[in-house]
Structures are given as structure tokens and as C-alpha cells.
Amino acid sequence: MVWIIAALSVIGAFFFMEFMAWFSHKYIMHGFLWVLHKDHHIRDGRKFEWNDLFAVIYAIPSIMLIYFGYADMDYRMWLGIGVFLYGMAYFMFHDVYVHQRVKMLSKISNRYLRATVKAHKEHHNPHAHYNYGFLVAPIKYYVEEFKKR
């Protein structure tokens, strides 16, 4: 029973992080911390962006949850692992797959990836004020992909 709760905690934290990513992207990164995020919208091939500091900021709660929950193997550790796994999925999808900051995974493609990438690339349009999610795009992009058969 303990392992079921642990697994549900990891999965729940992972999916909750998509909401947190959307919320912080819309209201924090495109809000009062735009000064750190704006260079991400300028795609010029730089290895470091000020936007990369958000990875450090968002890693801190995960590290703390894992650290403080490890001794007792309690819910904090499992939540921290869920947050960590989301961060890894985000990095692999956003930085590696979409923006190709690490040159790999470029040959992988499916309807989900094409739809999500299209939504993210439209977000980078200078006049776009939508599509703030990372791993889940608005449904219209998936519908478009499934209609292309």
C-alpha cells in the first residue's frame, strides 16, 4: 500500500508541475521576471540564457523535498522525485527536442510532438500571448495533427 501512495505521489506531482509551469510561465516569466525570460525569446544560438536561471530556481524545491523526505522515505521525497522527473521531461522536450540546444532527438516525430512543438513555436512569435504550457498544448493543435491523415 505504501508503494501505491508513493507512486501516486510521484505521478501527481509530475502532472501538477505542468499546471505550475503554465502558471509561472504566464504570470511570472511573462510578468515581473520578464527581464530574465525575454532572452529566451531571442533565438541566437547562445549557450547560456538568463532564462536558464529558472531551472535552478525550480530545482530548489525538488532538492529540498527529496532531502527532507529521504530519511523517513515519506511523501516529501516522492513529491520531490515527481518534480524532478517533470524537470527532466521539460529539459528533454523543451531544450533538447524543441530548441535543439543539445543536438539530439531531432529525428523523432509523432503527432503529439509535432502538435506540442507547433504550439510552442507559435508562443515564440513576438506578438503571441498564448500557449504557456510546456508538455501539453491547447487541444486545437492535436486536432490539427490528427486531421492531417
Nutshell version of this structure?
This protein is mainly alpha-helical and 149 residues long. It contains six helices and no strands. The N and C termini lie far apart (44 Å).
Walkthrough of the structure:
- The protein is mainly α and 149 residues long.
- It has one domain (2-147).
- Helices cover 66% and strands 0% of the residues.
- It is built from six helices and no strands.
- It has helices at 2-32, 34-37, 53-70, 75-98, 111-123, 139-147.
- Helix 1 packs across helix 4 and helix 5 (111-123) crosses helix 6 (139-147).
- The longest helix has 31 residues, at 2-32.
- The protein is globular.
- The model has no long low-confidence stretch (mean pLDDT 89).
Kindly state the percentage of residues in helix.
55-70%
- Topology pattern, helix = H, strand = E: HHHHHH
Structural class of the secondary elements?
A: mainly alpha
Low-confidence runs of at least 5 consecutive residues: none
Number of helices: 6
Mean pLDDT: 89
Summarize the helices and strands and which ones pair or pack:
Elements: H1 2-32, H2 34-37, H3 53-70, H4 75-98, H5 111-123, H6 139-147
Brief descriptors of the model:
globular; 6 helices; mainly alpha; 66% helix; 149 residues; 0% strand
